């Protein structure tokens, strides 16, 4: 039996499950207007100050773009930062290099497009456990950089440039437990490297070009895998269940 996920990883996974749904598409969430989110959200300067003073270990900015000059402030007194979630980052390819200075960073989400240069920088943040890149623009080569992250447990990304070959790099990630691919054009051949990834507990695949036969083969190789394809279980998935069943403790 696998050990339970730690609290931070479990919280992130729970959030992903709520958004994705289990046996049917979830209703679209009501997203506040940007002006409302900006009013409710503490400013970048306030959040950076709280980290420097030891009052917080998180920075989350969704309503305002983060400029390169603001981002550079992380290199001064923010060594304890553990969670960094930025929706819009100016010049991410140039800015991400300072992540190597954040030795306690566990969770990173960047909503702006990130390419191979950005992944090269992210791979130097060796403490990362959770990485979410919903607007990725990188290739197989960039994805290969992430195999250097020894603690990466949850990887969620979109990129139209990752191919079946890139899945070989994912199979080499030693600690990976949760994987979510969004619009990644892999085929059944791309699933084959995952057959040997015994640490994998959850795999969400949205889009792609895999067949039901290829996906069913994956489930036979990894019978304990929690798997969703386009927000649904496969018809022959022995672990298929509804959220109502889960809520009832079944």
β content, as a range?
5-15%
The CATH homologous superfamily of the domain at 7-31 and 106-247 is termed: Ribonuclease Inhibitor
Multimerization status: single chain
Mean pLDDT: 86
CATH top level assignment of the domain at 7-31 and 106-247: Alpha Beta
State the secondary-structure class: alpha/beta
Helix content range: 25-40%
The biggest beta sheet reads: 8 strands, parallel
> What's the count of strands?
8
Which stretches of 5+ consecutive residues score pLDDT under 50?
1-5, 14-21, 23-32, 243-250
Radius of gyration: 18 Å
What is the strand arrangement across the widest sheet? 1-2-3-4-5-6-7-8
Q: If classified by CATH, what would the architecture of the domain at 7-31 and 106-247 be? A: Alpha-Beta Horseshoe
Task: Give me some keywords for this one.
250 residues; disordered C terminus; Leucine-rich repeat, LRR (right-handed beta-alpha superhelix); disordered N terminus
Short note summarizing the structure:
This protein is an alpha/beta fold and 250 residues long. Helix content is 30%, strand content 14%.
Secondary structure: elements and pairs:
Elements: H1 7-20, H2 34-40, H3 44-52, E1 58-61, H4 68-71, E2 83-86, H5 92-95, E3 107-110, H6 116-122, E4 130-133, H7 140-145, E5 154-158, H8 167-170, E6 178-182, H9 188-191, E7 202-206, H10 212-221, E8 226-229, H11 243-247
Parallel strand pairs: 1-2, 2-3, 3-4, 4-5, 5-6, 6-7, 7-8
């Amino acid at each position: 039996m696998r050990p339970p996920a730690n609290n931070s990883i479990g919280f992130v996974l729970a959030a992903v499950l709520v958004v994705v749904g289990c046996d049917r598409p979830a209703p679209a969430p009501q997203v506040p207007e940007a002006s409302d989110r900006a009013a409710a959200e503490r400013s970048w300067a306030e959040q950076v100050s709280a980290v420097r003073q030891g009052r917080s270990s998180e920075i989350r900015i969704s309503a305002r773009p983060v400029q390169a000059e603001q981002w550079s402030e992380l290199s001064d007194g923010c060594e304890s930062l553990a969670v960094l979630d930025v929706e819009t980052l100016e010049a991410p390819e140039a800015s991400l290099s300072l992540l190597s200075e954040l030795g306690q960073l566990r969770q990173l989400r960047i909503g702006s497009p990130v390419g191979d240069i950005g992944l090269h920088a992210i791979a130097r943040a060796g403490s990362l456990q959770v990485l979410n890149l919903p607007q990725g623009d990188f290739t197989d080569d960039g994805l290969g950089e992430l195999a250097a992250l020894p603690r990466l447990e949850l990887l969620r990304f979109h990129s139209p440039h990752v191919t079946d070959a890139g899945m070989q790099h994912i199979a080499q990630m030693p600690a990976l437990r949760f994987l979510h691919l969004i619009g990644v054009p892999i085929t059944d051949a791309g699933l084959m490297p995952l057959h040997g990834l015994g640490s994998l507990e959850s795999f969400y695949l949205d889009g792609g070009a895999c067949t039901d036969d290829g996906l069913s083969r994956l489930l036979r190789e990894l019978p304990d895998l929690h798997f969703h394809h386009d927000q649904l279980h496969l018809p022959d998935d022995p672990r298929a269940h509804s959220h109502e069943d889960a809520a009832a403790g079944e």
